[in-house]
Amino acid sequence: MRILAVNVNTTDAMTEMIGKQARSAAAPGTEIIALTPHFGAPSIEGNFESYLAAVAVMDRVVSYRGEYDAVILAGFGEHGREGLQELLDVPVVDITEAAAHTACLIGRTFSVVTTLDRAVPMIEDRLKLAGLASRCASVRASGLGVLDLDEAPSRTIDAVVAQAKAAVEFDRAEVIVLGCGGMAGIEHAIREATTVPVVDGVAAAVKLAETLVALRLSTSKVRSYAAPRPKSITRWPMTPPPT
Amino acid sequence: MRILAVNVNTTDAMTEMIGKQARSAAAPGTEIIALTPHFGAPSIEGNFESYLAAVAVMDRVVSYRGEYDAVILAGFGEHGREGLQELLDVPVVDITEAAAHTACLIGRTFSVVTTLDRAVPMIEDRLKLAGLASRCASVRASGLGVLDLDEAPSRTIDAVVAQAKAAVEFDRAEVIVLGCGGMAGIEHAIREATTVPVVDGVAAAVKLAETLVALRLSTSKVRSYAAPRPKSITRWPMTPPPT
Amino acid sequence: MRILAVNVNTTDAMTEMIGKQARSAAAPGTEIIALTPHFGAPSIEGNFESYLAAVAVMDRVVSYRGEYDAVILAGFGEHGREGLQELLDVPVVDITEAAAHTACLIGRTFSVVTTLDRAVPMIEDRLKLAGLASRCASVRASGLGVLDLDEAPSRTIDAVVAQAKAAVEFDRAEVIVLGCGGMAGIEHAIREATTVPVVDGVAAAVKLAETLVALRLSTSKVRSYAAPRPKSITRWPMTPPPT
Amino acid sequence: MRILAVNVNTTDAMTEMIGKQARSAAAPGTEIIALTPHFGAPSIEGNFESYLAAVAVMDRVVSYRGEYDAVILAGFGEHGREGLQELLDVPVVDITEAAAHTACLIGRTFSVVTTLDRAVPMIEDRLKLAGLASRCASVRASGLGVLDLDEAPSRTIDAVVAQAKAAVEFDRAEVIVLGCGGMAGIEHAIREATTVPVVDGVAAAVKLAETLVALRLSTSKVRSYAAPRPKSITRWPMTPPPT
Amino acid sequence: MRILAVNVNTTDAMTEMIGKQARSAAAPGTEIIALTPHFGAPSIEGNFESYLAAVAVMDRVVSYRGEYDAVILAGFGEHGREGLQELLDVPVVDITEAAAHTACLIGRTFSVVTTLDRAVPMIEDRLKLAGLASRCASVRASGLGVLDLDEAPSRTIDAVVAQAKAAVEFDRAEVIVLGCGGMAGIEHAIREATTVPVVDGVAAAVKLAETLVALRLSTSKVRSYAAPRPKSITRWPMTPPPT
Amino acid sequence: MRILAVNVNTTDAMTEMIGKQARSAAAPGTEIIALTPHFGAPSIEGNFESYLAAVAVMDRVVSYRGEYDAVILAGFGEHGREGLQELLDVPVVDITEAAAHTACLIGRTFSVVTTLDRAVPMIEDRLKLAGLASRCASVRASGLGVLDLDEAPSRTIDAVVAQAKAAVEFDRAEVIVLGCGGMAGIEHAIREATTVPVVDGVAAAVKLAETLVALRLSTSKVRSYAAPRPKSITRWPMTPPPT
Predict the structure, then answer these.
(1) DSSP 3-state assignment of A4?
(2) By CB atoms within 10 Å of each CB, which of A104, A151, D67, D96 scores lowest?
(3) Chain D positions in Cβ-Cβ contact with residue C231 (cut-off 8 Å)
(4) F175 contacts F106 by C-beta, under 8 angstroms
(5) Nearest to A224 among F98, F132, F174 (CB)
(6) Which chain A residues are within 8 Å of B233, Cβ to Cβ?
(7) Which domains can be identified in chain C, with CATH numbers?
(8) What is the ipTM, given to two decimal places?
(9) pLDDT tens for the 243 residues of chain C, in order
(10) To the nearest whole angstrom, how far is the Cα of B11 from the nearest Cα of chain C?
């Protein structure tokens, strides 16, 4: 089985981290191809950047020449999953939803700890559309930007632990969801500090993608995610596939 | 006052129709500039096309050189309003929300009559995020594609009337909202056939944009729609402004 | 265009203030007629007084002899809008809803800052019925009675600013709505102190009433707000129109 | 124990019917005083009439000279309960809510069968504010006006049975609530025809009022229903108590 | 009239307390039979124990040989009411729901003060299923275990008062519901300390059971609570009735 | 990895079918142990039977002597998952929730097709508590009892297909969930007839259990599902483990 794990920003180091995390979760026999979009912002911290990333991710996948069995959208709280689902016949798993669904299986409520305060509404909106908001105790911001995360792991851990502890104590969260693709790898530290289970979206998405492939399930094409009607679209794909 | 009314698809005839409808609603002294995106699909009938349109609209506005006081996003049920709000200091009014807010002032419930069945979930999602879903009795599809609308006005009217009447009778709608920018101009025919008020989003958006400008109100910049952080973004804007 | 702006209490000074605020928002060519009910309480701070005001407002409008194009119900969180809509063919705009709809156009969430704690549930109920509660971050009380407001503007501003700042910081409000007709005129001070947009309901209602008139839209008469059936009603109108 | 059962319309025959129904439900030792408002409409079938009734009921109760232990507001879907709760120290029980609470104890869902289509939204709103809407499967109209009810009992029963059966079959109601004070007395016929339990609001309200008195419980005065602040109110009470 | 009040745990002292409280609320002529299950936990403080109690209560009622007119399920936040409703033709009243319905009649919001933190989610779930969650301001834990309650009444009162006061002040509760069958008898102390009405579920359930019996209403058998289909069930009842 | 798949009824043939279905979904290396409770009903079609099954399942698992890595609760819409989560340290996956979470990954909405009409409310309640109701388009009954299912596969398929097609057409479902453990094996037939993806809960639960084990995630023990406090419980476990 081959899974594409598509980063939403253009930072190669983050794509590598996502690939590494995905591989550590993958079953034997699952190959992970981590992709970086051909354009967009080096980190996604707002709606403008997220909409641009949605298109860049679709462009990246569409211009990919190999075969694959599933796609993971590796941006937390980002736009674009619905578009990919229309374009593809294979399953598309968004890490936000993958993490939330997984958290629901192991606790009555979960809290998301994310990066900047401005990402909170975006995540709340994605959870609302996914019908998962009622299980979400809170979305909390650590105050760190996306690219600050890997520069100072210990500072990241401290900031996330502080919010995670507050979520458990004040918001009555029973599970913590790491609210950024770039937080992969710190699950164990957060778990140790809070004693509650910690879910990373990239790992969860890999397993759920494997699950769908194993069950021979893929996106329903009956209405919301039917394939686009044939049209003459200007400048699409934006990045022509290599010849 | 100058308002940009941005079409979401690349069909110039529809841009003209939007401009005409906007002008007919505008107060004396309000100038309407109707814009067509530089790329994208000739009609938006799904999430992939809508995400692409969101970026194309942002690109079109950002590469526009003139001054303006407000922007109207003239695609019903489309993505992108949040991104524009981040990029601009002037008010941004989406026609979906403009129509829904206006309908709420004149009836207890409203129904949207749109084009294809596949547009229904997109519109429902936008209304849900806008917190307006509880006033929406139903979103119904006429079965006509976006570009079918202006080709056969009488067929359009018949198809919309049929769904509008069903909405009033079975879904208990008290107001009908026209669920496509391309339906502008048929309000009166629908109103006559159903006897309930009919709201066109483009006209409503013009008046609400004028309202915001008159009240010196614009998008709050405190959190959700704060300006993007300065970043080096690849290929942005996609269409460099003319020199 | 002529708009009736009807105060809900019997205090003439407040009617004047409402008229002044309405006029400052009105377009050239819009005439504002500010009316005081013929009976009721000097300030409305509870359900009993509000129900009485609902009837007094309907009585005042029904006994008004002139012509008019729209009516503004200038009591924040008050009862009565539905009754007026049944009695009249012209649009009726409630300042609570006008402010909330306007706030939704410029921020993801809004908070209302009102007078006494006991007004909070009434406002929450009106927003709930209007289907706007999900965008409302909080309704906060300044602790000042309705008639305390104009006696000490600076004290009013201080009390409202304190709650507005708390709403932005703790409740994550992005827009502040002034939750009393008598707060008209302090928008700018609150805006300066909080840096978020501030919406006054009277001004918003004037613009939305103008919008409806311009769009030739008025209350749907199909069900909820159909004209009352002809009946012999005892003591109605309560104040016979002058002969 | 003495309970005031206040009709909301001015039709004495309906007051008598309400009194009779209340007495048939009352415990030995409970005295029922049925009151007719001094003004208002002969039947309440809309918001204007309902607001007027709210004030007329408050006026009637306030001008009543005797002692009493509880008040029943005997109008289904009507305004006014909150105002009475502010004015009085004894419990106030609204028949809409009494019926709904009672229905919740004996079935998973209930449907209301009421008079005219235009009453449906009013009842839905009262249930929504009461937080009981999620248990309500539907509110259906029989098409009969309030005053048609007692003129032709068999026609009333047929019309109500038809809607009640539809509610059980199509809306999955498990209990039927009679949605008009004037439907008292036909419970048994509806029950026989549908085989599901049928709740009359007047009877339910009497028992719940007795329950509150027996438990020495009355309206909380801490916030929403605190007594009105002392004020000089013009024309109140509207009907001076007899000297 | 004879009412069975069934304790959910196996502690006889608590059964006695429940019986005493029920009798103090019962009308003259109502006989209370307090029953203890034949198996289960001495106190119910979690889902495992609650599910076991649900079966033990059904077993206790089914193996009871006498006649009775209604059953009260005297465990706050416990499972099992739906099963009893299927098995019996007489009304079944759960104290959680009885208290919540009663509280709704006398205040806009109520808070529950219960025992341990781990009971909070269970109570929230029961209120959610009962459709009463929107009126519930909060469920707060006093930190005392069920069996700690009667050992130290004054400590119980202090702990409950502290949470009740916090509920009124911070959660805007207007009524306090005692969230444990074992708290019966401290209503007056809590009421005095908080000045808001206090509802005990056992007392409320007795009155509501009497109400249903008086109104000749019982569980609808049309769908959710239809009698079980005849089946050969292994080991049921678990406790054979005495011969 | 070893997973216990626990049937909720006492019918061995159904346990076998569950085991077979689970094995067909399991990854190489995953061993499935299918267990039948020691007591209860031969099929679960109501709340009484479901509560009894909840206890019987807990009893069966507790009295099982072997080691295992996860438990699957193989009754659709049944009680008991919370109790098992308290008792065990390994993950517990309920097939209702497993199916619903899986369906959410491949369609915007899903419908459940179950057995008898009386099972519908139970399933709705479980989905409501799981916070998944907003994605559920409908729960429909095929009219077949649990034990009718395997007696006449073709009749089962016809009945399920009829409801599944109606769900897609009228309720706008995009995915069908098989609402009974005994429907395992007919996914392909339903899928072929409806063209939408079909999810079987047992298969989904196996993959999600494997997912949790692979991610080293298990139930949070911080509040809702903390281990029961040590107590002396009468008759527990009901079936002593074999010596």
Answers:
(1) strand
(2) D67
(3) 41-43, 49
(4) yes
(5) F174
(6) 39-42, 49, 52
(7) 2-94+204-214 (3.40.50.12500), 96-201 (3.40.50.12500)
(8) 0.97
(9) 999 999 999 999 999 999 999 999 999 999 999 999 999 999 999 999 999 999 999 999 999 999 999 999 999 999 999 999 999 999 999 999 999 999 999 999 999 999 999 999 999 999 999 999 999 999 999 999 888 877 768 889 999 999 999 999 999 999 999 999 888 889 999 999 999 999 999 999 999 999 999 999 999 999 999 999 999 999 999 997 666
(10) 26
